[in-house]
Amino acid sequence: MEDKAFTPGEKPFESIRRLIDVCSPHGTFVDTHSDMVHVSLTGNNGEQVVIVLLEGVMNIFRNSDQLLYAVVSGPTFIGVLASGYRKEINTFCALKGSKVLTLPRDTVIELVTKHGLVRELIDYYRYIIDYQSYIADLMISRTTYEIVCGLLHELALLPIESRKKISVSNYILARTHLARSGVMKMLADLRLGGYIEIQNGKLKGIIKNFPAKY
Q1: Pairing of β 76-78 and β 90-95
Q2: What is the pTM of this model?
Q3: Could you give the CA distance from residue 62 to residue 93 in angstroms, rounded to a whole number?
Q4: End-of-domain residue from the set 85, 117, 136
Q5: How many helical (H) and strand (E) elements, i.e. helices and strands, does the chain have?
Q6: Adjacent-strand bridge partners of 77
Q7: Which long-range contacts (CB under 8 A, 24 or more apart) does 9-14 make?
Q8: The domain boundary residue, chosen from 118, 136, 154
Q9: C-beta atoms surrounding 107 within 10 Å
């Protein structure tokens, strides 16, 4: 029996491209020369801003326990629909070399309205809602094996250059509260069985479908 890949649908790249084309000329680039750069949803003057990840990877942490809630790759928008609550519960950090800019949320809303991009914005946030549902589905009432397989599928979706910077075991442990020993054993068994290829601790790829059960 084949494994089930708990992954959301494809990102609506065309809708995102149209939004970026309109918004990026009004944004300010963020310096991402450090290993992990904090990017806030609050601007220097206290205004709410939108984060636009053009290229690279953004880590989203849950502030209550510093759990790595999600890892997203560009292009993506963060914060258009964010509330004050959302700003308090998550921290956003761009990986070194990522291409990131910010601009006031009011400016984004004005540009979306002016250029008739409401449909594109809805299309994008449909994907975001699907992704949030995917995270909940993956983490709730799943076995350790199902969670590990799901996160391997998720990691495999990231760009190859980004995966080269991410330790497979650290990624899974940061995304969960699973025991290190159990995660390491499952990774070793999947690697030994020829299901995944790992080189220097980094995921090169998923070779074949995972077994339905561990």
Answers
A1: unpaired
A2: 0.84
A3: 12
A4: 136
A5: 8, 10
A6: 52
A7: 9/127, 9/130, 10/127, 11/76, 11/127, 12/120, 12/123, 12/124, 12/126, 12/127, 13/75
A8: 136
A9: 15
List CB contacts of 198: < 8 A, sequence separation 6 or more: 168, 187, 191, 204
Burial per residue of 128-157, b for 16 or more beta-carbon CB atoms within 10 angstroms, e otherwise: beebeebbeebbeeeeebbbbbbbbbbbbe
- The domain total for the chain is 2
In a domain, 180, yes or no: yes
pLDDT tens by residue, the chain, 214 residues: 344 444 567 899 999 999 999 999 999 999 999 889 999 999 988 899 999 999 999 999 999 999 999 999 999 999 998 877 777 899 999 999 999 999 999 999 999 999 999 999 999 999 999 988 888 888 888 899 999 999 999 999 888 888 888 999 999 999 998 999 999 999 999 999 999 999 999 999 999 999 988 8
Sign (positive or negative) of CA dihedral 188, 2, 208, 176? negative
